[in-house]
Write a structure and sequence with these properties.
This is AAA+ ATPase domain-containing protein. The protein is α+β, with helices and mostly antiparallel strands. The protein has 5 helices and 3 strands, in the order βαααβαβα. β2, α4 and β3 form a beta-alpha-beta unit.
Length: 134
Amino acid sequence: MRVDAAPQETYADIGGLEDQIQEIKEAVELPLTHPELYEDVGIKPPKGVILYGVPGTGKTLLAKAVASETTATFLRVVGSELIQKYLGDGPKLVREMFRVAQEHSPSIVFIDEIDAVATKRYDTTSGGEKEIQR
């Protein structure tokens, strides 16, 4: 897990993703910077978003930029880090990640390559693989 208290990336560093930037501003930035807008109309802002696409399309850059714009702490974990050899180690890492996020609130937790964790279920004998299938 990597913690970046102040990412340097900005929206200006991102080219060609105007629609996605606008959506991120509405779904992530606005609730963090102006929660009263949501409270005034009685709606709960989203607690998370999923950025998906092929590698190299700017997902990580976009997440870092919104963290920078909101002054939120940016926590990046690669999905494969959550898969551990011994039963119980993966959930411990997830708990630790969210403990750190809460300690450094507001935080943006970015799980890169989540497909390493959210794989298709199949019969296996490895403890780590059995754990992620639960």
